[in-house]
């Protein structure tokens, strides 16, 4: 393998793990690591069925975007909602099908898991594209991720609307493998 400076290096051995709910409908976290350096915490909108030993296109892309960095030894992938839905429409149907008490309970547990992992993250990366719209839930996810604003949030790049790019952004929005992380601050919502 050739690194970004043109040096020949050994391809890192990538290890993985994943944590699913007992019912199999929720993926709480997915980990990939290749070194001893601390791990990044990456937040998407909703998870796929990728597991300990199998990657989906998003996880493959995250490996390409992060494995060259010497300050990051891996990443933990978590999501704003941990219900498995590879199609965003399935995620909306799930959310709309829960009563408010059940939704608050499920989201509350997920937010606590995000907060717990964030305490040891080397860097906190938002990568949900335009799938997580501004609102109370996004605000709570960002508060859990940043530990109530004590840590900065980073992105691989920004969409035209200022949202953090999803790793699978295409066309002229595609993220180069060597893209530096940029600090990301959500646009303030109007009080109106």
UniProtKB/TrEMBL annotation:
Q: Per its UniProt record, what InterPro entries does this chain match?
A: DUF1643 (IPR012441)
State the superkingdom.
Bacteria
Record's protein name = DUF1643 domain-containing protein
